[in-house]
Amino acid sequence: MSGIVLKAENIHKSYGGLSVLRGISFEVKRGETKVIIGPSGTGKSTLLRCINQLSPPDKGRVWLDGVEITDPKVDINKVRSSIGMVFQDFNLFAHLPVLDNVRIGLTKVKGMEKKEATDLAMEELQRVGLRDKASSYPAELSGGQQQRVSIARALAMNPKLILFDEPTSALDPELIGEVLNVMINLAKEGMTMLVVSHEMGFARSVANEIIFMEHGVIVEEGPPQQLFSNPKHKRTGEFLHKITELYGESEK
Amino acid sequence: MPIDKLILIWQSFPSLLKGTLVTIELTAGFLSLGLILGIPLAFGEVYGNKFVSAMIISPFVKIFRAIPALVLLFLFFFGSASFGFELSAFTAAILAIGFRSSAYQSQIFRGAIQSIGVGQMMAARSIGMSKLKAVQHIILPQALRLSIPPWTNEYAGVLKDSSLAYAVGVTELMRQGRYIVARTFGNALLVYFVCAVIYFILVYSGNKFLGFLEEKYKIPGYEIKKRPRKSLERI
Amino acid sequence: MNFFELAWNILPALLKGTVVTLEITGVSISIGFILGILLALGRVYGNKFIYLLTTTYVEIIRGTPLLTQLFLLYFGLPSIGVMLSPLLAAVIGMGLNSGAYQAEYFRGAIQAVKSGQMIAARSVGMSKFKAVRYIILPQMLRIVIPSWSNELIYLVKYSSLAYMIQAPELMAEGRLIASRNFRTFEVFLVVAFIYLVIVLILSKVLDILEKQIRIPGLEMQAV
């Protein structure tokens, strides 16, 4: 297998005449963490959903490990089971205890034996530090804990890559750190991640590359160092300046 | 109470109980048919083809809710005869009120499904579940839990509506009462009062049982925000 | 005679019944309205005894079928020497019945009026009675409209039960016609159609009414 896990080419998407994505192309290499930044309403979340086809793109193609997944002949459910997704508002299955949230994909999608699935799920919960919450229900957890469970749910499927859609935006400030720490560890362990985030500290310290998007196109792409200290485009500099003022750089 | 009235009640009890049994059978039939049809109707309305929903499901629901139960009973009972297959009064009643209940129940389930955030479906699809699996494992279990409080109302509603089967000759509780009244002249007040007490006990114990189910299957921390307000409205 | 000729022929008689149906509905919803407000006030503001009394009434009525209640009034009361005409029994029965349900809507609506309203009314020197009369009730009535509309439509449909105690309303008219021409199914198709039209028109009218007299911010969350 080549070093490129995900390749997107010329992705277009519009909703009701409003074009949200206007020709997005990029690649994510194995083990790489790529962070997408940009003003809100710029199509970042839509882009993630176009990748795992939760909203199929109008035009453009996506490859996962060299296989084109925008091909209508591909079993998209199978593809999705190997692309993790972490949502802004967690979306844990409200009627299931934590353990079942992590386990249900294994038993119902992968058809794994319950015993094996339980062991694996517990392992993933251990990884995000929530083994002792296995029997709690989502509503009994803090936002940060819920988000860590949702990361465990994604991890359990042994994904080739995980998409993070503003994973800390719905969290109270004091809970952001615990989620970012889990993500930092994943990056260190070599998980391939595509992250939409406003956490500049995280982007700066963890990302291999940053993509700056605006108005449905990629304005600039490059290593954090380059974007922060020497952006090629004026807009990139302006945005980074503004966002850093707004959110700070606590995670430097 | 004079002793002869007590004796009358005592003697009428077996036939009233027989009627009660039929009333319970009717109620169970209405609810089951309503449930079996109501769930697919609800999912059809929410997730199904827009055309099917607008042209078939929605008119079905509207019509069955707008026509009085008694008229539906007559249509099914006399209609079957004029179409050449005679339904028994009992079957006609089950079909008429059962279909009607399916219209009401579909609205209960639809409300419950719609109160489940879209994120649940998206998360289920994101781990690779098919739409069907997502509905089966994620949406339906939540929808059914959320439906218990309004469903309790539906139970009481169709139990009370089962008395209308009297009109097409089903020997349910009210008709057994009527027979006793006819046999023993001048006891209508007493006999119908006993009928009312029996209905009350059925409604009350059913509510208690469903309340117990609701408690048993509640999801910790979830019910307060998400549970639809217990509907006071009758149907 | 085909169906449409039949329908055309029996329409005048059925419409006569329809008028009675609407009269029964109108009178009983009014009785229920007054009773309902009294019961609701009793449940919210009454002392322990009144609360118990009104609650018991509401629970008993809601826990038993309307048909049983009508039979008790029409067939039962003569046992103790009280004879009611079918129409009177129907409107009293349906009024008493509807009162219990309306009480529940009103109670919910009163409780939906913000508690600050009562405090504010008392703080400008209103008595409790005046506060209820001028501040709480007007707000409650607007909040209650959606549920109340439902009740009106319910009563139109359930006024058909008056047929079972021989009141000459739409159902009874239909039954009478069917007993002469033996085309029961077709007759009741027309009856069903009439109910359908009444219910649809009524829902539309109530919908418009609701929008007309709505006060911004004074809606009850979907019941």
Number of domains of chain B: 1
CATH class of chain B: Mainly Alpha
Overall tally of domains of chain C: 1
Global morphology of chain C: flat
Element order, helices and strands of chain C? HHHHHHHH
Plain-language structure description:
- The complex is a heterotrimer of chains A (252), B (235) and C (223).
- Chain A has helices spanning 44-51, 76-81, 98-109, 114-127, 143-156, 173-188, 200-206, 224-229, 234-247, and strands at residues 4-15, 18-29, 33-37, 59-64, 67-68, 83-86, 161-165, 193-196, 209-214, 217-222.
- Chain A is α/β, with parallel strands linked by helices and 252 residues long.
- A six-stranded mixed sheet of chain A has the order 6-7-8-3-9-10, sandwiched between helices.
- In chain A, strand 1 (4-15) and strand 2 form a beta hairpin.
- The longest helix of chain A is centred in the last third of the chain and has 16 residues, at 173-188.
- Chain B has 235 residues and is an all-alpha fold.
- Chain B has one domain: Orthogonal Bundle (MetI-like fold), CATH 1.10.3720.
- Chain B is built from nine helices and no strands.
- Chain B is flat.
- By secondary structure, chain C is mainly α.
- In chain C, 43% of the residues are buried.
- Classes of the chains: A alpha/beta (252), B mainly alpha (235), C mainly alpha (223).
- Chains in contact: A-B, B-C.
- The interface between B and C is large, with 45 and 49 residues.
Write the layout of secondary structure elements.
The complex is a heterotrimer of chains A (252), B (235) and C (223).
Chain A: E1 4-15, E2 18-29, E3 33-37, H1 44-51, E4 59-64, E5 67-68, H2 76-81, E6 83-86, H3 98-109, H4 114-127, H5 143-156, E7 161-165, H6 173-188, E8 193-196, H7 200-206, E9 209-214, E10 217-222, H8 224-229, H9 234-247
Parallel strand pairs in A: 3-8, 3-9, 6-7, 7-8
Antiparallel strand pairs in A: 1-2, 1-4, 4-5, 9-10
Helix pairs in contact in A: 3-4, 3-5, 4-5, 5-6
Chain B: H1 3-47, H2 50-66, H3 69-82, H4 89-115, H5 118-126, H6 131-161, H7 173-183, H8 188-216, H9 223-226
Helix pairs in contact in B: 1-2, 1-4, 1-6, 1-7, 1-8, 2-4, 3-4, 4-6, 5-6, 6-8, 7-8
Chain C: H1 3-45, H2 48-62, H3 66-76, H4 86-112, H5 115-123, H6 128-158, H7 170-181, H8 184-212
